[in-house]
């Protein structure tokens, strides 16, 4: 595939040292600073899980800065990037590392009901480490839905 057939490429969020989330025409893709490499499935955005390694506010702030640089409406990039799907996805894939990182995002991103549901799944998860289950249990106790 040549650069000309790839369409436009605009990096919008650093995912890792050499990995960027960006806009390829009207869709999301992962790539480097120069070109997209693969599309992001917004219904299953596994490639965005590394965002969980940063505080949610930092990710949002980076998107807001990029919006301003690109002259986009406030909230436009945040509305296109499926950050809200990441905590549930992290629990669904049953990997302790991602589940623990997702717990850190719950207060900022999930409704009380969704947070309670995910916390319960982690507390009861045989695949999760004792540490992760304990963190989820403590959080569930502090923020339980009445």
SSE blueprint:
Layout: H1 3-6, E1 9-16, E2 19-24, E3 27-31, E4 36-39, H2 56-70, H3 76-80, H4 86-92, H5 96-109, H6 112-123, H7 130-142
Antiparallel strand pairs: 1-2, 2-3, 3-4
Helix pairs in contact: 4-5, 5-6, 5-7, 6-7
Characterization of the model:
- By secondary structure, the chain is of the alpha+beta class.
- It folds into 2 domains: 1-81, no CATH class; 84-146, no CATH class.
- Helices cover 48% and strands 16% of the residues.
- The chain contains 7 helices and 4 strands; from the N terminus they run αββββαααααα.
- The protein has helices at residues 3-6, 56-70, 76-80, 86-92, 96-109, 112-123, 130-142, and strands spanning 9-16, 19-24, 27-31, 36-39.
- A 4-stranded antiparallel beta sheet has the order 1-2-3-4.
- Helix 5 (96-109) packs parallel to helix 7 (130-142) and helix 6 (112-123) packs antiparallel against helix 7 (130-142).
- It is elongated.
- Residues 1-5 have low confidence and may be disordered.
